[in-house]
Design brief:
With 473 residues, the protein is an alpha/beta fold. It has 13 helices and eight strands. Helix 1 crosses helix 5. It is globular.
C-alpha cells in the first residue's frame, strides 16, 4: 500500500474518532507578548510505549552571573545571498519520502493555527493557509495532550491526524512543544526539573514523525518551549537562562537522535523591560543564554527563536525612536525592528551563520481591552492598518534581513474557542486574527489582513490570490 493511501485511510479513521471532541475547548492560545514594561487530556486510544533515548550525561547546569545588557545597534546590511539553498542529500531524501524538506527560504512565510480538536475546521483552515501563499503552519503540540496520562502513556490520536492533514496540505509544520503554564500538577513536574522526561517525550514525538518513508508523518521543525523569560512559563519561578539552556540542550539531543534533519528552534522570548521575579528582558535573557552555552550554540539549536511584535509602531520604525517617544512605548522592544537588536547579540557571539525564526509577530486592532487598546485602536491601528503593517513587515525583512531571517510566523489564524462565551470581542486574541472565526463549513469571512497577505505572498510565487475581489488579485 502506498504512503499516500495509508495517509488517506488514517485521516478518515482518525477524523471519525476525533469528531467526538468537537465540543471540547481548543488548546490554549499562544501567550501574547508583554504589552508594557510591567508584565503581567483525555486519551482516546491505547497508549504506546515511549522510545527511550540514551541517557544524558549532564545532570545539572552551571550557575551563571547576570551580566549588564550591552547596548545593541542595528546591524549593517549584509551582502544579499540566494534565498534558497542548492539541493542536498536531505532534499533528495525528502523527495523520496514524499514529505517536504526541512528547509527555509529567507524570508519564509507562516502563520499559527488551531488544528487540534476539530478536524473539519483544520481542513478548511489548512486550505486557506496554503491558498493564502503561506508555506508553513505553526501548531501547539501540548505535552499534556499527548502524554497526560503518565510516563510512556502516549495518545497519538489527535497528533497523527494533525500531522497527516498538514502533510497532505503541502505545508511544512513547525511544532511548538510546551505545556499549559496553568497546569501546575503535571505528572512530570515543571521546568527545569522535568528536563529528562521532556527529552523522552520529544524523542518519541520526533521518532514517530521523523519524515522517513516509513514514518507516520513529518514534522519539519520543533520550537522548544515558549517565553521562558517569564516566570509563569518557567515553573512559576524566577526566569533563569542557564536552566533553559540545559533544558534546550537535552531536547536538541533527543530530537536529533530521532531525526537528524529536523530543525530545532529555541523558544521566542516575551518582549519586556522588567527584570525581577516575574520576568527578564529578552535581550538580557539571550545574552545569558550565550554565556551559558559557553560561546557556541552548537548542540542547542539550529535557529534562534524570537518574538517580534510591532505594538504601536509601524514596521520600519527604528528602535531608537520607539525608545525616545512615549507614544510608541518608550523602550526599544516596542519596535518590530527590535529583532535587529537580537541579531546583533547573535553576531557578537559568533553565530552569524545561523538564522532567526520569528515565531510570533503581528499587530492588534483591539479597541476593547485596556492592556492592548493603547497599541491597537488608540494607536490608529484598525484592521486595514494591521493588514498594511503585516505586509510591510515581510517587505522590510525581504529588503533588509536576508539571509539571516528564516521563517516569519505571524499571529494568527482564528480560534473557534473565541466564540465560546458568545462575545469574542472581549478575547484579546480575537483582534490579532487575520480572519473572523467561524464554524465549519460556513463561508470564510476574510479580514483585510488575509486578503492583503494573500495577494502579496502569492505574488512572490508568481501566482494570483484566488480569494481577492475580482480585479484585485
Amino acid at each position: 500500500m502506498t504512503l499516500q493511501r495509508r495517509l488517506l485511510i488514517g485521516i478518515i479513521l482518525l477524523t471519525l474518532l476525533s469528531l467526538a471532541a468537537c465540543n471540547r475547548s481548543d488548546e490554549g492560545p499562544t501567550t501574547t507578548p508583554t504589552k508594557t514594561s510591567t508584565p503581567e487530556g483525555e486519551t482516546s486510544q491505547a497508549a504506546t510505549d515511549t522510545p527511550v533515548p540514551p541517557a544524558a550525561t549532564a545532570t545539572s547546569e552551571p550557575a551563571t552571573p547576570t551580566p549588564e545588557p550591552p547596548a545593541t545597534a542595528t546591524p549593517a546590511a549584509e551582502e544579499e545571498q540566494p534565498t534558497t539553498a542548492p539541493p542536498t542529500q536531505e532534499t533528495e531524501q525528502a523527495a523520496e519520502s514524499g514529505f517536504l524538506p526541512a528547509t527555509m527560504e529567507s524570508p519564509d512565510f507562516g502563520t499559527q493555527a488551531f488544528l487540534w480538536w476539530r478536524p473539519e475546521v483544520a481542513e478548511r483552515d489548512l486550505n486557506l493557509i496554503r491558498e493564502g501563499g503561506f508555506h508553513w503552519v505553526k501548531q501547539i503540540f501540548a505535552w499534556e495532550n499527548i502524554e497526560g496520562a503518565g510516563k510512556g502513556h502516549l495518545d497519538w490520536s489527535f497528533s497523527d491526524r494533525v500531522v497527516q492533514q498538514v502533510n497532505a496540505s503541502n505545508l511544512k509544520l513547525l511544532a511548538r512543544i510546551s505545556i499549559d503554564p496553568q497546569k501546575r500538577d503535571f505528572w512530570a513536574g515543571l521546568p527545569p526539573d522535568s528536563a529528562d522526561h521532556f527529552a523522552d517525550y520529544v524523542f518519541a514525538l520526533a521518532s514517530r514523525y521523523s519524515c522517513k518513508p516509513e514514518a507516520v508523518g513529518c514534522i519539519q521543525a520543533y520550537q522548544i518551549w515558549n517565553e521562558p523569560n517569564l516566570s509563569r512559563e518557567w515553573g512559576h519561578k524566577r526566569p533563569n537562562a542557564a536552566e533553559y539552556v540545559f533544558f534546550l540542550g537535552r531536547a536538541y539531543e533527543a530530537i536529533k537522535l530521532a531525526n537528524p534533519n529536523a530543525l530545532v528552534v529555541s523558544a521566542g522570548m516575551a518582549p519586556t523591560g522588567d527584570n525581577n521575579e516575574l520576568a527578564m528582558p529578552d535581550d538580557l535573557f539571550y545574552e545569558q543564554m550565550y554565556e551559558a552555552m559557553g560561546g557556541s550554540s552548537e548542540g542547542y539549536f539550529d535557529a534562534l527563536g524570537v518574538h517580534g511584535v510591532g505594538f504601536a509602531a509601524p514596521p520600519e520604525l527604528d528602535p531608537n525612536t520607539a525608545a525616545a517617544e512615549s507614544r510608541y512605548g518608550g523602550h526599544r522592544f516596542f519596535s518590530f525592528r527590535h529583532v535587529e537588536d537580537i541579531r546583533g547579540i547573535m553576531e557578537r557571539n559568533g553565530d552569524a551563520d545561523k538564522q532567526i525564526v520569528l515565531l510570533e509577530f503581528g499587530w492588534t486592532s483591539d479597541p476593547v481591552n485596556p492592556d492592548y487598546r493603547w497599541h491597537g485602536r488608540e494607536a490608529g491601528i484598525d484592521m486595514a492598518v494591521q493588514a498594511e503593517y503585516l505586509k510591510r513587515a515581510y517587505e522590510w525583512a525581504g529588503a533588509n534581513w536576508r539571509p539571516w531571517i528564516g521563517l516569519m510566523s505571524l499571529i494568527t489564524m482564528p480560534n473557534l474557542e473565541w466564540l465560546s462565551d458568545g462575545n469574542p470581542e472581549d478575547e484579546e486574541q480575537f483582534w490579532w486574527g487575520i480572519m473572523e472565526p467561524s464554524p465549519c463549513c460556513d463561508p470564510p469571512t476574510f479580514r483585510p489582513a488575509y486578503i492583503e497577505l494573500c495577494r502579496y505572498l502569492n505574488a512572490q510565487d508568481e501566482q494570483l490570490c484566488i480569494h481577492a475581489p475580482e480585479g484585485q488579485e
